[in-house]
Model the fold of this input.
Amino acid sequence: MIRILHLDDVSEESGLIDNLLRKSGLKYELVWVANKDEYVRALNDFKPDIVLSDHSMPSFTSIEAFRLLKECSIEIPFILLTATVSEEFAVSMMNEGIADYILKDRPQRLPAAIENALEKFAAERRNKEFIAQIIRSEANLKAVMENSNVNIYSLDRSFRYVTFNKLLKDTLKMYYGLDIKVGDVVFEFLSKYDPKEIDSWRDIYIRALQGESIAFTKEFDVNGVRAFVNFYVNPVIEGGMVTGLSCFATDITKEKLAEENTARSEARFRALIENNFDAIIVTGEDRKLSYASPSTFRMLGYSWEEMKEMATETFSHPEDAESVSHLYEQVYKNPGMPVPWSVRARHHDGHYIWAEGVITNMLANENVRGIVSNFRDVTERKAAEIQQAQMTRDLVQRNKDLEQFAYIVSHNLRGPVANILGIANILKYKEIESEERLEAQHRIFNATEMLDEVIHDLNRILDLKQEVNDKREGVDLQELVDGIMVSVENLIVRNNVRIVTDFTRVHSISTIRSYLQSIFYNLISNSIKYKRPDVDPVIRITSSEGSDDKVRLVFADNGMGIDLEMAGSKIFGLYKRFHPLAAEGKGMGLFMVKTQVETLGGEISIKSEVNKGTEFTIEL
Amino acid sequence: MRFIAIDDDPVNNMICKLTIEMVANKPEIITFTKPQEGFDYIMNEYASKVNSEPTVLLLDLNMPVMSGWEFLERFDNVKDDVKKLFRIYILSSSVDPRDKQRSYANKNVQAFLVKPLVKDNVVEIIGR
Done:
C-alpha cells in the first residue's frame, strides 16, 4: 500500500488523480491537502511514501513544499504536477532533486512515474547506507592500521605504495631516514635498506601478484644490530583479478633473540649432560624412562630403543628389590630432596655393575615431570671394598689362628716340657730306687713323644692352612664314603657300625678331594669313638641343595651326644676334649674338620643332645 | 700337712708327689686326675667333719670336662670354715700372662706356679 500525499488548492484535481490511479490498479492510500498547514500536519501524521504537488497555489509553491521536505530531512520522492510550467523550470526542479514531473495534460504516465520514483529512491537509500557503511568500516580499518604494532602497507601492480600505516612510515624514517609517500615505488626504498636482497624481494612480490600468499622471516643488520622481521605478502583480489598486494611486517627480534638464547642455553646444558661421565636418567610417573644420557648407554650397554621400553625395576638386581622399593618410597615421600642410593644394575650382557648416585623426585617440576637419577659405575671401588672386607676377615681369622697357635704353644707344648723338667729334677735330687727310676725314664720318654706329636700336629695345621690352592675336582660322595669304610673296616666290624647314606639329591661335589675325605673321615670316626656303650652306632649321611648354590651335608649319629651348653663355643677348638674317658683323642678331629670346611669356603654347625646323638650340618 | 694335687695328667701328679716327699716330713698326698672327684672328696672329707687338716691344693687349669677355673668357681660357694682350711696354688704349664693375672685376681688363690713343681716351691709353701 503506497501512501500518497497530494498537495493542490483545487479539490477536483484530487478526484481526477484518484480516478486515474484507481484505474491503473496501483494499491495506494491517497490524502489530499490544500495548503501549507495541512501539508505539514499530514507529513507528520500521515507519513507519506511519496508527495504529489501542484506547481502554483495561492499561498504556497511546489518549490517551498519540496524545500520543506528537505528541511525536515524527509527523504521521499517528490513529483511535480503542472500545467503551466515550462520545460526549463522542470529541469531546474529536477536539478533541485525532485523525482519527476508530470504535465497535467498528459497524466497517464503518473502511475508509472510513482512506481519509478519509489523504486529509484529505495535504490538510492540503499546506496547511501552502503556508502555510509563503507565509510564507517574504512574508518575502523584506518584506526586498526594506525594503532597496530604491525607494519602494514599495500602496493599496486606497479609496486607503488597505495597505503601504509604510521608505524611503517615511522620505522623507515627512524632506522633508514626514508620518507615514504603514497605513489613511491617500493624498490627505491629496498635498495637503501636491503640492497643485497632486491632480486629476492622482486621475486616474492611477483609471485604474490600471481596469486600466492607468502610468509617468511628476514634478518636485517640495522646499524650493526641484528633484527628479525616476519613478512606476510598477500595478493589483493578484486573481481577475480590481483590488483595489488597487501603486506604486513612484524618485528620479532626480541622473541627471536630469546628463542636463540633458550636454544643456546639448552644446547649448553645438553652438552654438559651428554659429555658428563655420570649417567643421568629421567623416569616418568609410569616408571618408564623419558630420558637417558649417552653415558647411560656406555655404562649399561643398552640402546635407547631397548631402554625406553623397560620398567626401572628390571634394571636392578633381584636381591636388591627390597632396598629399591624402599628407596622409591623415600623418593616419592620427599619431593625435591636428593636421596642417595647404591644398587647393582643389570648390564645388557647380563652381568651386574655397582651403581651409586643420587635420585630426586622432580615430578612436581613442570619442566621435568620426572624422577631424575644420576649415577656412576663404582664396580671397581665396590670390588676393592669387597676385597678389602675379605682381607679384613682373613686377617681377623689369621689373628685368631695366631692366638690359637700361641695357646697351643703355651698349653700343649709347655705341658710335656714341664713334665720332662719335673722328672729330670726329681732324678737329680732324689735317691730313687731302680724301679722308680725306670718308671721315670719311661715317663720322660712318653712326654718327649707327646711333645713330638704336638709339634707334628702344629705342622699339619699350618700345612692345612697353606693348601688353599689345591685343585678342585668332582668328588662322588658314595665313592668317598665307601673308601673310608674300607680304611676303617676293622673299627666298623668291631663296633657293629651301620652307615646309611642318601646322596640321591646331590651325588657329587666339586671340591678338594683330600679335604672332603678328611672331613668325612673325622666325622665318621668321631661318631664311632663316641658311641653309646650299649647302642650299636648308626651314622646317617645325606646330601641336599643348600642355600646360595651350596651343597648341604648332614651327618647324624645316635651316640653319646655333647652337652652343648657346657661345651659351648669350645666345641671346634683345638685340643678340646669332651669325653676324655670314653675314648682316646687329642681334641684334633673337630678342629681339623672346621678348619677344612672353612678353607673350602663352607660352614659347619652342630646340634646335639646327650644320650641321643649328634648332628653336624655342613654347607659347602 | 695335707697336699691335694688335681691334674688330668698323671705324670704331673707323680712329679708333685715325689717332689713334695723330698721336702716335707711324711706328708699326706692325695692326687686326682678328675677334678670332679677331687671336689667331691673335699665336700665329703671337710664339709662334714670338724677340725680337718689344713690343706695345700695344687690345681691345674687346663683340664677337660671341668677346668681349673670351673673348679674355683664351685669352690667359692663352699662354706667359709671349709674354705679357710685351704691354700690353693695354681700349678699350670701355661706361660700365658693372662692365666697368671686371672689367677691372682681370684681371692681364693695363693699363687700361680709354673710347672714343673720344684723343691723351692714346696719349701716356700711349707714355710708360710
